[in-house]
Amino acid sequence: MAYSEKLIDHYENPRNVGSMDKNETSVGTGLVGAPACGDVMKLQIKVTADGIIEDAKFKTFGCGSAIASSSLITEWVKGKSLDEAGSIKNSQIAEELALPPVKIHCSILAEDAIKAAIADYKTKNGQGEVEAAE
Amino acid sequence: MNELKAKPIYLDYQATTPTDPRVVDAMLPYFTEKFGNPHSRNHSFGWEAEDAVEVARDQVAKIIGASSKEIIFTSGATESNNLALKGVMKFYGKKKPHLITVVTEHKCVLDSARHLEQEGFKVTYLGVKDNGLIDLEQLKAAITDETAIVSVMAVNNEIGVIQPLKEIGEICRERGVFFHTDCAQAVGKIPLDVDEMKIDLMSISGHKIYGPKGIGALYVRRRPRVRVIAQITGGGQERGMRSGTLPTPLIVGLGKACDIAMNEMAEENARIMELRDYTMKRFRDRLADIYVNGDETQRVAGNLNVSFAYVEGESLLMDIKNIAVSSGSACTSASLEPSYVLRALGVDEELAHTSLRIGIGRYTTREELDQAIDSICVAVERLREMSPLWEMAQEGIDIKSIEWAEH
Asked: Residue ranges of the NIF system FeS cluster assembly NifU N-terminal domain (chain A) (predicted)?
């Protein structure tokens, strides 16, 4: 399968790999996917008091497209408000990385991961949605 | 050094093998000056080609302990498997409409079985134990008075395990059932004897044994006689079982490949086995949490199927793109399902997604393996640093205790 240069760059030089302390109140964690499906994404955001994502980290078990999708979304969400970050669509990720059709689910997983991280942050900080992120 | 690094390393000998130069040399004259049709009976061009075909037929027969009259040339193991299963079922199926095979067979056997099912035949798919081998008691229990044939591959293409052919042959003979075995991955890799193993039909492939692609053979026993209905009809070549002009150069190549394999198998296996054990030892010395899939002793020398836990196979392949290996993870297909063979072994799905098949063969050198081992280890370490599952495992979290949302 031929992958785009951008995808390969994100796979070979992934941005923002790492972990934050998930117990910190300013950190929201999203863990989505399942090992049995061959994809697990953990995405974490660190949010400032005025609701801006100042840092993002990820760890991903999955194919090259899944790793690239997570790397890309951590770059995109930095500096954005929670609402802005939450409105990123998987189709934007798929387009940016030129994901082949069989890899679209990787971009969906990245969208789910950021939404889950935001929900976790909000739950922790008593901002609405009671439902758990995971 | 850079140039050396850029040269791809081939470790996918179960997919195909390069044609041995000695085989190519034997083939070449039959493309040009000795181009006759082996079925032309009235001139020397035909006789010359026919003689070459018969020498090759004998070479193929020898490596499996058969008589040359029992060898039918086909286009490859896929066609041989089709002819064996469909041919036998269509001849004997009225009285004996039942076929037994195994869930880990090659797709061409499974798909032939499915087609036969659609035509009304009954098929039993035996499972395998966690080492990839069939349970002989289960086989005995599955045979009925209606069973025409049992088809069990000798060596599995993904995990390299060797099924107990002799025991299966004895069970089949005792019950009056034909025994077919797909030996695409077995010929030239393990000693085979159709009489000792009581094999009635055997599929053989050219390109898995350093012969050319596009040629194979089917062994069909003469005493007691096995009848098959031809799947390709026409001029009635190959004793009516497979019509079509025989491709002399390819047949000469298959014969030569068998001849070389027969003479060199013991020595070659010892060398390859040593390379395989060396590779596994180096992996184990450097990496934790790696598992061999399939029985560790009942397997061919050239197959190493390893799961590198917490690292997804396809991303691993992408990292080591200079090394040609195969992954048990089929994430490229829309189904997202890992290898059906590994799943049949009961390998955890998450581990099935982390497997690589490393195939070592005639031309593999220790230098190539050293380079491949280093690349694979570096990639596994890099990807584990990136893996949330590896992180959880290091923190002592049991991945199975988490309720994952399957997608």
From this structure: 2-126
